[in-house]
Amino acid sequence: MIIATKLHIPRSRSSLVVRSRLTRRLHEGLDRTLTLISAPAGYGKTTLLGEWVMTLENPVAWVSLDQGDNDRTRFWAHTIAALKQAYPSFDQQDVLRHAAEDPSGVSLIAALINGLHRISHTMVLVWDDFHHIEETSILQGVTYLLERLPLHVHLYLASRNSPALPLSRLRAENRLITLEASDLRFVPDETTEFFAMCGGIQLSNEDVATVQKKTEGWAVAMRLAVLSMHEHTDPVSLIRKMAGTERDISDYFFDEVLARQSATMQQFLLYTSILDRMKGELCQAVTGIAESHAYLQQLDKESLFLVALDEWREWYRYHHLFRQFLTAQLKMREPRQWQTLHMTAGKWLEENGYPHEAVDHYLAAADYEHALSLIEEMTPELMTNEWTTLCKWLNAIPDTLLFARPMMLLTKLASQYLSGHVEAATDGYWQAVRRLEEDTDPLPPEEAETLQAGLAFLAAFRTFLDCDFEYAVQFSHEYVEKHPEGDFFIEFGSDENGYHPVWDIYVSDDSLRLAEQVLTSLLSIWSETRNVYFVAHLYIDLGKMQYERNRLVEAEKLMRQAYDIGRLHDNRSLATIAALWLARIAAVQGDEATSKHILRELTQLTSKTANSRLSGKIASFRAMLGRMHREEKPVRQWLRKSRLRFRDEIPVSMIKEYDLLASILAEQGKMEEAAALTERLLQLSIEEGRQSDRIRLLVHKSMILSLQGKISDSMDVLEEALALARPEGYIRTFVDEGASLGQLMDQYIRLRQNQLRRPSHKVPLSYVKRLRRLIPLAEREAGTPHDRTLAALTAREQSVLRLMETGMSNKEIALKLNVSLATVKHILTISTANCNPKSLTSVGTCQNTTIVLTRSFYFVQIISTTLLNLFDLLCRAGLITMGLEEYTIDGVKLCRD
């Protein structure tokens, strides 16, 4: 939720002293990365910045921070909103799409940096009251931003202390300007002008020296002095009594400001001091004073330490130091009113649509029941992205209350973990386990069962998020055994389109072998539960594994199941992911009509919402498909709309998009850019432990090196990719690259066969040859005939032969093409009538059918599975060597390349 008043630049109603020496320093910040204004409260930091930005020709993005902004999502959401408000051309949605995709927040900041790069003119971003920010992850994000901030973007921070940022490094690199308390103190000339302008008081040089000595140039002290002098016939004697200590200044607030107000105004000031921000109606509810709006206007007119938070002067806040004084006075004078006032404020805010602020007031009043009830209502929304806020609130509520509401205790543990407080979540988990075991304060049986099941659920998903998949299976089994419905937190953390960070965790990305084992187990556990979204995700993950293993029929079935769940339950995220895979499978099978039909359906599905994440996935898929088919138009459109550049910061969630960019750059002849980008992507994939991305990027790096004429290096990198891929059984990562990689693999095979290359990795040549044999098929599937014979076949004949290569049986082919089984057999007979054994190059299997692939056509011979197994055994034993050889098994002549 964006609070508009936080983006307002505070402006003073009264005339202020022009402090030219300070504004010059601020202007110098337009040649630096960071300008830091660091001084205690009351030194005029906000006023100085607010007045300075009004002198600039360009707009400024401003965020006034508070304690609530220690939530990483909220902090960056307000920052991005401020940038969008100041600079309409800033692509806000393209940045925000990464907020959920990468829980670490690094992807969002990388996308933010890229978005700033795409605006060429000078940009200024102000974070006021930055001292409120203590969350480590936010400070790390700001550091990441500072290290990569574009030269035309300048950051200004106002803080009561020096933040935990790399200030020494910035100073050494001449990228930092600092203004401290000593700089902000009023000098004699400014003091003279201040008293004349703000108080109409002409001070002598001696008086000025006295003021300087007593106030030490502190802005708030001087302001108090001006306010007090109007009530004294001998202002000079008052000045001489002044002292600049904080306690004495507080006495001035009491004696010289508050005491001069009417009794009603004093009550108004004290009671409203509990409010972070206020408007007339809220003040009336809290104070019971009907003229509250008029009182606010009076304070504003008199510039009595009131700051307007919007252009219409509807919302206000007190100067921080003044509010501290007032709250201290309230607690001292009327301590019993503290709780009542907060409860009254909470009720008004809740009833008028400000639930976040209402919770803060209920907690301040220790009214935990009201707070917990409201938090419970807000939890689904907060679970989308405000885990830190949820964690902070639930941490403030005693565990005894949470224990009586098991789902809220579970929510607390989940919020602790997902907001980065892993140790606290772990401790809380074991405390709950021990309390259940000790049974000293037993819960009703139903609630105890809920808590036990919930703890197993949290353990299952924590281990899944941590990629500890074997334990995820164990705890999933325990959870479903205790709660067969499996409906806890079904949509927790999901956005409006059904996206959840879990959907970006694929076992198949880490290990195909582990995926085959783990995903089957997880599906058997979860498939009968109500958590259909997680089941759909498992289908997609298993489908990815089957696709990579070139089991296209199985992959299509799994993706179809995931797609059907997504459509049935209106989960656009899962439906989109599954549909894109279905389109890809159809495309590599040569069924372009089905692929295009799926994409049309997908466009209609996603047109209901303007979701940049989903539309970005569809656009990049179209570009990937266009590249496979050598179609320039979709590639050009994607390059133009995505605006990706090889120098961009790379969000982890966009590794595949930038890999596609690198491949396109290489094909455009921009080798240095392609190589540099690929190397950065490769290092990122290694750092993130993304095995599948690493293998694919090594393949692309090898191809780029080959295009650069660095054949030896190309072979080394290709061999590294093969060595990583072979134990896992990777196929499509290589096959989908088509003829270009095929030619490279030919070189590798020749070098190995002619003993011109000694492999540094153990890569069986049989695995390389198997991949090589499949690559020409990929070219044909992409719609590029290689010879007249295949081109001369009818479309129906080509469809049959392509589907056979994917592993489909004759019966499955007949069902898919809506023809009879006899028709399929007839097509196979016609297609293979003129077989020339000398053109045979490879053998593939399809259940009980051996397909002998030729350079011009297919030859089909039916033999038994036993004979096929024997043939494969001969291959693995190394009894078949490179070259065209014929074998006769049970009277059937076979050949192998």
Automatic annotation (TrEMBL):
SMART domains: HTH_LUXR (SM00421). This is HTH luxR-type domain-containing protein. It comes from the Bacteria. Pfam families: GerE, TPR_MalT, WHD_MalT. PANTHER family: DNA-BINDING TRANSCRIPTIONAL ACTIVATOR DEVR_DOSR. Gene3D superfamilies: P-loop containing nucleotide triphosphate hydrolases, Tetratricopeptide repeat domain, Winged helix-like DNA-binding domain superfamily/Winged helix DNA-binding domain. Keywords: DNA-binding, Transcription, Transcription regulation. The keyword Transcription regulation applies.
